[in-house]
Amino acid sequence: MAGGAASVRALLRAANGLLQQRRYRAALAVIKGFRNGAVYGAKIRAPHALVMTFLFKSGSLKEKLKSIAQATYTHSRNLACFVFTYKGLMALQARLQGKKIPFHSFFAACIGGWLVFGENNPINSQIIMYLLSRILFGLSRLAVEKGYVPQPKQDPFPLVAALIWGTVLWLFEYHRETLQPSLQSSMTYLYDDSNVWHDVSDFLIYNKRTDSK
């Protein structure tokens, strides 16, 4: 028993010593990036999948739990693989050129995006749309910061909010099929299901009646 504990302590000391070696830092950063991508993907997707599945999907409890697990696994795996690919390519480019330059980041992320997120499926679609909105805001701020666009005299956010809500509801009402499925489900619940009721049970308590009244 004591010998086993001593072996574990020796193994931990060896592992900690390896982690302190600067020559392995780039490779170790890639491995930890994979770990962080997996954990973060699971933390983000699991609660989202849980809420969306139980709110909008039909089926047995087993089927719902399987759907949640699959969505969580896919998001976690994809993000882990992307971080691994990105950091690996960044380290490789810096080693080949002897320094880090801005193009390295763009190129590495393009390759990772193509390889990992190139498949058009619901999980990847949600991630890409999430990033697209952040990119548009970021590029707008950068354009002002660099002087390509004059600094607005008033906060443009109210106008942006109005245009975005106006556009998305127009698409929902007249071109619904163009919207992402989970957004369609959310808006159907908010704007279509609220037009239908039979009595107080499905007016205040439930969204829809489950009996055959």
TrEMBL record:
GO CC terms, sorted: peroxisomal membrane
UniProt feature coiled coil, ranges: none
InterPro entries: Pmp4
Protein name: PXMP4 protein
PANTHER family: PEROXISOMAL MEMBRANE PROTEIN 4 (PTHR15460:SF3)
Bilayer-spanning residue ranges: none
Pfam families the UniProt entry points to: Tim17
